[in-house]
Design a protein that fits this description.
The complex is a heterodimer of chains A (about 350) and B (about 180).
Chain A (H helix, E strand, L loop, with lengths): L13 H22 L10 H12 L11 E11 L15 E11 L15 E7 L5 E7 L9 H10 L11 H10 L4 H9 L11 E2 L4 E4 L5 E10 L8 H4 L4 H12 L2 E9 L19 E14 L19 E3 L3 H23 L14
Antiparallel strand pairs in A: 1-2, 1-9, 2-3, 3-4, 5-7, 6-7, 6-10, 7-8, 8-9
Helix pairs in contact in A: 2-3, 2-8
Chain B lengths: L9 H26 L4 H30 L10 H32 L3 E4 L2 E3 L7 H36 L3 H6 L6
Antiparallel strand pairs in B: 1-2
Classes of the chains: A alpha+beta (about 350), B mainly alpha (about 180).
């Protein structure tokens, strides 16, 4: 083949070209390592949050890293159709949706005393007939203690037990609250409201705001709560003397009959913050009673239906979306790390798949 | 007489150059979404699942195209060890391109997660709800992703080596078509 050029082609600079190939590979590999966070160990990650939970509460293989102590419950949600004004999700159409739930005590210690914390939590997984799911993990306080994932992590660090005493250093805890004034509404609310005597006479709140879109395409910011039909009463020292008074009481009450809550949707007015779980919306905001949550029996968490559920609050049916609250993504990310660790531990320790043999697993 | 095929077919080249950046993007999205607690986490997860299923569809088409249209032979003077490496690395690439989305889909199924493509559009589970299975598949998804990323880097380096150093036509067999006659 004859070349048209009258000049002989200059020999390529082989070392230059090899270096260029190396540079391309290094840039891609380096970028990957950077995105994975390996180059920035001080960057806040889900792994670091979960590691800090373990540093605070110790190693409890197979258990959730937070809300480790809990009880599974089963029931359903009877929608009255009113919620459809806000969201097109099937769960709000008139009818019944199956519910798997879990009551828990905050913290990473699965044998904590029920009376050790003022907060109770309720997590729910509602599975629509079309297979879409609404998972929510709620607390019994209408405001959350911190605003950002970084503050959450700082609080976990402040709560790490001092090796000398086995307890958190009060000075560090105090310093954390002093440095983070966003915690004030939470502290004030807890100071003004004695914890409930039971899991079934407490209200539970969505913590974060969400975006609800109805069939007409209108979107509103919404927070929800479940409000008990059972009248609230404050806990007594006699009750808290029993380490497991909440779960014992729950089992007793459900043996007497189903327990009911109303699902209340609260609609934000323009300008209400949706990205800050430490700020309550004014009490005059529009509220819709969307129906009744009925819980009718408990299961031990060791083999109950709730055990293998990650109550990730960003798993939502069409018609509900996360808001701009920065806690939501961090919760999703951290819950996933906790779920991955405990399922791996369950598999390693040969824990039976829950009720697989009896065919009750969904 | 049929001329020896020197270039990949136009469809094979199209599939390769569409999938290459998407696979790289998937690997970066995957490693990023599990490490970050920022709000991009939700966004990255929402892309990762439908993109994975799209890549699964593309790789099925691609395997069919590869089987029916074949591939140009490697240069005769390529050292045997390099030729073997080329053969093996391509099997690994195809295997992982198909396995990664299937494992991801099965892993979500085993965990009981809804498999959301977009809004109300869900895929059915392809594996039973089982923590054992989830634990195995979840670890495998990460391990094979790292293997895929390393294989892609080797593939890229080898392609550039063919194109810039050996200049033996292997790179251009995928980079462009043959002269039209």
């Amino acid at each position: 083949m004859a070349k048209k050029s009258s000049f002989p082609p200059s020999p390529p600079c082989i070392p230059c070209r090899l270096a260029a190939i190396g540079a391309v590979v290094l840039a891609l590999g380096g970028g990957f390592i950077y995105v994975g966070g390996w180059l920035s160990p001080t960057r806040l990650s889900a792994t670091r949050i979960i590691n800090q939970f373990q540093a605070d509460a110790g190693q409890h293989p197979g258990f959730r890293r937070n809300h480790a102590k809990g009880v599974c419950v089963v029931g359903h949600f009877d929608s009255n159709g009113n919620g459809a004004a806000l969201s097109s999700a099937e769960v709000f159409a008139p009818g019944t949706t199956a519910v798997i739930g879990r009551f828990a005590v905050p913290g990473g210690n699965p044998s904590a005393r029920d009376g050790s914390v003022p907060v109770r939590s309720m997590a729910l997984m509602l599975t629509q007939s079309d297979g879409q799911q609404w998972r929510t993990a709620m607390n019994s306080t209408p405001v959350f203690v911190i605003h950002t994932p970084a503050q959450f992590y700082a609080q976990l660090q402040a709560n790490q037990p001092d090796p000398a005493t086995g307890k958190p250093d009060p000075a560090k805890v105090k310093a954390f609250f002093a440095a983070n004034p966003e915690t004030k509404p939470f502290l004030q609310w807890v100071a003004a409201h004695a914890p409930s005597s039971s899991l079934v006479n407490a209200s539970y709140y969505s913590i974060d705001a969400f975006r609800f879109t109805n069939a007409q395409g209108q979107t509103n910011a919404v927070r929800w709560s479940v409000v008990p039909e059972t009248a609230y009463s404050p806990v007594t020292p006699q009750e808290t003397s029993n380490k497991d008074f909440l779960s014992t009481d729950l089992v007793n009450r459900l043996q007497q009959g189903p327990q009911r809550w109303h699902l209340i949707l609260t609609v934000a007015a323009p300008g209400d913050p949706t990205d800050d779980a430490t700020i309550q919306w004014p009490s005059d905001r529009k509220q819709i009673d969307a129906g009744t949550l009925v819980l009718d029996h408990t299961d031990p968490q060791v083999d109950g239906d709730c055990r293998d559920v990650n109550f990730d609050p960003t798993i939502l049916p069409a018609g509900i979306k996360p808001s701009d609250d920065p806690l939501l993504a961090a919760r999703s990310s951290a819950y996933a790390v906790s779920f991955n660790r405990r399922t791996r531990e369950e598999a390693q320790h040969g824990v039976a798949d829950h009720k697989q043999s009896s065919g009750a697993a969904s | 007489m049929i001329a020896v095929q020197k270039h990949f077919s136009p469809l094979a080249r199209l599939l390769h150059w569409v999938m290459a950046p998407l696979i790289l993007a998937m690997l970066f999205i995957g490693i990023g979404m599990v490490s970050t607690v920022a709000q991009t986490h939700d966004f990255l997860i929402a892309i990762h699942k439908p993109l994975g299923i799209m890549l699964l569809v593309l790789v099925i088409v691609r395997v069919c195209v590869r089987i029916t249209r074949g591939s140009p032979p490697l240069p005769g003077d390529l050292p045997k060890l390099q030729a073997l490496g080329a053969l093996l690395s391509h099997y690994v690439l195809y295997a992982l391109m198909a396995a990664m989305p299937l494992i991801g889909w099965a892993m979500l199924s085993a965990a009981g997660y809804p498999i959301v493509l977009y809004g109300g559009l869900h895929l059915p589970p392809i594996a039973p709800h089982s923590v054992y299975l989830y634990a195995v598949l979840r670890a495998l998804h990460t391990d094979l992703a790292l293997l895929l990323f390393c294989t892609v880097l080797v593939h890229l380096a080898a392609a550039l080596f063919h194109g810039l150093i050996r200049r033996d036509g292997v790179f251009s067999s995928m980079a462009r078509g043959g002269p039209r006659r």
